[in-house]
C-alpha cells in the first residue's frame, strides 16, 4: 500500500474543527451555575478559546492544503480575526486539533492565508491613498 503524500496536493486524513456559537443542551452544561456562566461570558479571548469551543471531525481529503486554507479563511471571516494574537490563536488551535503529520500542511495554509490578508490590507490602503 503506498504511503500518503504529506505535500499539499496529496491525500491525507485529518481532523478539522468547526466552531458553533450555539449553546449546548448537555446535562453538564445545564449544571453550571449562573455565576460561572456570567464569568465565562465576560472572559476575554484566551489562547485556548478556539480549542475549547470547537468540535473535531475526522475527514479524508484529496487536497488537505486547500481544505485547511478554506477552513481557516472561513474562521477569519466568521470571527473578524485581523490581529496577530488572534491569528496565532487560530493556528495553535489547528495544530493542537490535528496530528503532527498534518502540521506542515497547516502551517503552509496559514502562511498563505497571512499573505492573502496582507494583500487585502495593501489593496485597501492603496485605494485610500489614490482616492482624495
Automatic annotation (TrEMBL):
Enumerate the Gene Ontology biological process terms. Answer: negative regulation of DNA-templated transcription
Record's GO cellular component terms: nucleus
**UniProt KW tRNA-binding keyword:** no
The record's InterPro entries line, in alphabetical order, gives: Ovate (IPR038933), Ovate_C (IPR006458)
Q: Name where it's found.
A: Nucleus
* The keyword Transcription regulation is annotated on this UniProt entry: yes
Domain called OVATE: residue spans: 57-116
Its keywords, alphabetically, are: Nucleus, Repressor, Transcription, Transcription regulation
Highest taxon, organism lineage: Eukaryota
Job description of the protein: Transcriptional repressor that regulates multiple aspects of plant growth and development.
Against PANTHER family, the record matches this protein to: TRANSCRIPTION REPRESSOR (PTHR33057:SF218), TRANSCRIPTION REPRESSOR OFP7-RELATED (PTHR33057)
Protein's name in the database: Transcription repressor
Amino acid at each position: 500500500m503506498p504511503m500518503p503524500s504529506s505535500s499539499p496536493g496529496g491525500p491525507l486524513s485529518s481532523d478539522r474543527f468547526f466552531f458553533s456559537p450555539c449553546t449546548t443542551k448537555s446535562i453538564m452544561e445545564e449544571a453550571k451555575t449562573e455565576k460561572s456562566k456570567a464569568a465565562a461570558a465576560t472572559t476575554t479571548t484566551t489562547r485556548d478559546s478556539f480549542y475549547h469551543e470547537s468540535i473535531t471531525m475526522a475527514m479524508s481529503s484529496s487536497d488537505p492544503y486547500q481544505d485547511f486554507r478554506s477552513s481557516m479563511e472561513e474562521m477569519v471571516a466568521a470571527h473578524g480575526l485581523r490581529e496577530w494574537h488572534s491569528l496565532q490563536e487560530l493556528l495553535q488551535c489547528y495544530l493542537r486539533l490535528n496530528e503532527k503529520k498534518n502540521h506542515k500542511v497547516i502551517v503552509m495554509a496559514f502562511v498563505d492565508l497571512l499573505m492573502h490578508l496582507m494583500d487585502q490590507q495593501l489593496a485597501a490602503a492603496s485605494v485610500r491613498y489614490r482616492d482624495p
